[in-house]
Amino acid sequence: MKHIESQPITEQRNEKTSQLDEMNVQEIIQIMNAEDQTVALSVQHALPQIGKAIEAIVEVMSKGGRLFYIGAGTSGRLGILDASECPPTFGVNRELVTGIIAGGEAAIMTAIENAEDDAEAGAREIEARLTANDALVGIAASGNTPYVIGAINRARAMGAVTASVSCNDNARLSAAAEYAIEVPVGPEVVTGSTRLKAGTATKLVLNMITTTVMIKLGKVYGNLMVNVQATNEKLRDRVIRIVGEATGADYEKAASYTQQADGDARVAILMIKFAVDSNRALAVLEQCRGHFGDAVRILEKEDLA
Q: What region holds the SIS domain (predicted)?
């Protein structure tokens, strides 16, 4: 039997909540809130490591590579969640960022806990999906999940960029990855339930990774989500407002140009700012591989010429 000292800190008992079952509702949520407030500070301490990993991923993706997340249980689900938000938020192909979970799609809704113990399964998954031109982020709260470590080892051997996210110090996963991110959040409110503080920390880190990568790939203009996909009434209105914010146009003008641009905020903004038609705007965006900031700079130079 393992001594508590040898267990990951995420598995150890939180002395502050040892009488949790005897607390009233208000006391429970107050202590959960207090513990959650420590998570952002833990992430802050890891910012240098997070930044290095993101820079490496940006370099890969700026050359046409893809980003993959891999994890088991809660970690795998968080990777899938983050990946699934990229197409509607940043207008990218759904193959650009992909989440992989131990046990396959069935594990998204149903716990398949033993799947995480198979290192070779993780390695096989990577062989089937990755190339040397891609990046893989392994996610494991404990930092010791064999499935994820097997995947990272195989990806690194293939020459892909590898990073890891764990919530313990000196994790085995950290030793396997080229860029290790460790966010030690301490014992959970409910002992061992890493869907709590560890899950929150992981979500914060993944938010930083994909959001910063997409910003550097030119999917954001200022702080405006110019690549948003207008798939419903709320988002169509948001696109019009983004066009107005970016150009200073009133709502009616922004709506008119957005319609001419078939709902593409980038095209509408370029049309208004540089008095070009939609075909020219699209051509410049294609020339820049969709990097909106680069498209703006090209048209600015043409205006000055």
A: 57-219
Q: Which amino acid is at 25?
A: V
List the CATH code of the domain at 9-216: 3.40.50.10490
Q: Which of 5, 15, 105, 116 is catalytic?
A: 116
Model pTM?
0.90
Q: How many CB atoms lie within 10 A of CB 36?
A: 15
R_g (Cα) of the chain, nearest Å = 22
**Does 110 have pLDDT greater than 70?**
yes
How far the first Cα of the chain sits from its last, in Å, is: 75
Residue 113 has what pLDDT? 66
Catalytic site residue 85? Answer: yes
Q: Which of 27, 35, 55, 85 is catalytic?
A: 85
Q: Whole-number mean pLDDT of the chain? A: 92
pLDDT at residue 5 tops 60 = no
Grade residue 107 by pLDDT with cuts at 50, 70 and 90: confident
| Angstrom distance (rounded) from CA 113 to CA 78 | 16
- Record the tokens describing residue 287, joined without a space: 């020339």
Known active-site residue 11: no
Q: How many CB atoms lie within 10 A of CB 297?
A: 13
